[in-house]
Amino acid sequence: MKGGTTALFHYLNGSQPAIHYPNGSKSHVDFRPRYHPGIIGAHATKEVNFFNKRPSKIANATLQQQYFASFPGVDALVDQPLAGRCSYPAQLGLSSSSRPALVRMEATAMYLAHPTAAANVQRLLPQVRLLALLREPVSRALSSVNMLFQNQHAHLEQASPAYQQAWQVYVITELRRQLQVLRGCYAKVAPGLPVHRQVDDCVFAPNQTLTGVLHVHVGLYAVHLERWLSHFAPQQLLIWSSHAFDEAPAQHMDQLVHWLGLDPALTWHNSTTFTRMHKRSYPAGSLPAALLQELVAFFQPHNERVFALLQRHGYGSLVQQLRRAWPLELAETISKLQQKPAEHGRQTQVQP
Ligand SMILES: Nc1ncnc2c1ncn2[C@@H]1O[C@H](COP(=O)(O)OS(=O)(=O)O)[C@@H](OP(=O)(O)O)[C@H]1O
């Protein structure tokens, strides 16, 4: 969440007006082709929000049918979506001469941090391939709180002093509150149960909700990856630095095509211009230095935990990449947020 999932989804999915499919479902046909014809996104939205529901007693086959109804060209009875098969290849831009492989994808930002999503996915899609984008956690938290603030204060003119003042009060209050709740959760962690189980229980306690701590909690990647890696093998989980993806999108997309075992010759390299998506502005000069320091200090040991976890699971080169990228991302965020508009754009030195 806030790591570039919208951009990734749309780079892969092209841009598509609606058409109708033989099974009665309404779906898409490209006017800008998908990056690879063998990868197609969910209908209508990148976020299906299916696995972040409470576990249900409905039979797996019915649940699978419900889930696959979110994707174009799918009739789960004849289509064998779990086998990567597709009944209407021509409509999806695939050659119909053989039965081509088709990867269906969605990008529900909430899955990574959700306490039961990994278990729910494993139950229905044990062979699934997963991709996580990790953004420097302080920048990610500020992006998250900025989005919520903007959604709730659309009536305020962004350049106005009232907007800046309200932004500052909101960001300080909300981030401090979330930091306090999560410090409490981590302080209670004891030897025994895995850390992610203890933290999930605390975050999901009766007087506490996931959304209530989302800005900070999502960036505590060690607990989330620990949870997903307790359900899936590292071979099923591709993890990218958000910053590296931003710097070299085509290279990452080609890596994805290769990792999914699709034919690279079918890749449509000119399908997208890789412009940033979901980008928001921030009020310059509004982030107090003390809050910034508090955030940096809070995340620092958690970042070390995620580096150690990734190293243990064979993601050593990613760790090196994140150790280089995160200080740069943090410096960019500080430059964007802390300096007065006149100073904006100057180089800023930060401690990693
Ligand atoms: N290609 C690429 N790579 C990395 N990061 C990118 C990219 N495109 C957009 N962005 C920045 O990502 C932020 C939006 O992330 P998401 O699309 O994941 O947001 S959401 O979870 O769907 O709300 C948002 O960050 P902020 O602008 O700081 O809010 C975008 O600017």
Automatic annotation (TrEMBL):
Residues 114-277 form the Sulfotransferase domain. Its EC number is 2.8.2.-. Pfam families: Sulfotransfer_1. This is Sulfotransferase. One of its GO terms (molecular function) is sulfotransferase activity. Keywords: Glycoprotein, Transferase. The keyword Transferase applies. It is an enzyme of class 2 (transferase). 3'-phosphoadenylyl sulfate binds at R135, S143. Belongs to the sulfotransferase 1 family.
